[in-house]
Amino acid sequence: MQNDVVQLHLTGNMSNSSSSPSSSSSLSMELDESTETRIQRLISEHPVIIFTRSSCCMCHVMKNLLATIGVNPTVIELDDHEIAALPLSDDTRAAPAAFIGGTCIGGLESLVALHVTGHLIPKLVQVGALWVCFDPPFAEETRVQ
């Protein structure tokens, strides 16, 4: 399981750092972008993205849930003043906040609720973050006639 966590300093210093040197995420930064614009661009560029604070245990649980399904989300660690720039839904007040297909689905409770109700996997398939084979190998042999 690959866990790319990127710390972006969206304000001030423009350096990117990643916990994994083999990170393939395109996390380019434009010097003239505002924090809000950068966050919106990242949300639109990544089918599944989690914004969090460093050492957030709820983010770890969110990543593990998605990994067990087969999705490797982009995880962005933000400072407190950067978190204020997140376009959160009314029921999401702070990080971690997950976005799927550009839409804020909320925090850990919302992610688990989507999974338990059976809505998470279809949503992940819809945004192209997960591929599901509906006709498994040997299906012909196991079909009831």
From TrEMBL:
<keyword id="KW-0676">Redox-active center</keyword>
<dbReference type="Pfam" id="PF00462">
    <property type="entry name" value="Glutaredoxin"/>
</dbReference>
<dbReference type="InterPro" id="IPR036249">
    <property type="entry name" value="Thioredoxin-like_sf"/>
</dbReference>
<feature type="region of interest" description="Disordered">
    <location>
        <begin position="10"/>
        <end position="31"/>
    </location>
</feature>
<dbReference type="InterPro" id="IPR011905">
    <property type="entry name" value="GlrX-like_pln_2"/>
</dbReference>
<feature type="domain" description="Glutaredoxin">
    <location>
        <begin position="48"/>
        <end position="105"/>
    </location>
</feature>
<protein>
    <recommendedName>
        <fullName>Glutaredoxin domain-containing protein</fullName>
    </recommendedName>
</protein>
<comment type="similarity">
    <text>Belongs to the glutaredoxin family. CC-type subfamily.</text>
</comment>
<feature type="compositionally biased region" description="Low complexity">
    <location>
        <begin position="15"/>
        <end position="28"/>
    </location>
</feature>
<dbReference type="InterPro" id="IPR002109">
    <property type="entry name" value="Glutaredoxin"/>
</dbReference>
<keyword id="KW-0963">Cytoplasm</keyword>
<dbReference type="InterPro" id="IPR014025">
    <property type="entry name" value="Glutaredoxin_subgr"/>
</dbReference>
<dbReference type="GO" id="GO:0005737">
    <property type="term" value="C:cytoplasm"/>
</dbReference>
